[in-house]
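This section describes the prediction task in plain terms. A model, or a person checking by hand, is given the sequence of a single protein chain and must write out its three-dimensional structure as a string of tokens. No templates, partner chains or ligands are provided. The sample shown here is typical of the held-out split.
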Amino acid sequence: MTEIIENRLPVDLLEKSIKSGTEYGWRQNDFLEVVEAARKLHIAIEGGQIQYVFEEGTCELHWLHYYTNEIKKGENWTNFCNRTAKECSEMFNQIISKRNIEKEALDNFSLVKEKLKEGVVLENHKLFIISFEDKKTN
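The expected answer:
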């Protein structure tokens, strides 16, 4: 049986996670804390993307992603974990400071438009998916 990498995160952060299919995501306010916790635990960040998750379906804003570069030849695992945390955090900060995520979701997904018309608070459904990489999986 394969160990779920996310289970290595602190319990309080894992309890804040929201599953979207087989992926784990967090609210915007928790994102950087999760990335930093992973870095400290020597878990690399592969990246992820933003989703709006509703009971009726998931709207994945795949163009708003924060994928990191693969391990470089000769790069040790600790440096790789530190680098991917930095890369992911920088891309995340770029997205949230320069993009209107909700507008992009509304412009691209009829489900998001419908939910807004129903009075749903879209922010409560916005999720930042994070994919991790563990040294044992290489």
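For orientation: The beta strands are 18-20, 23-26, 44-47, 49-54, 57-65, 126-133.
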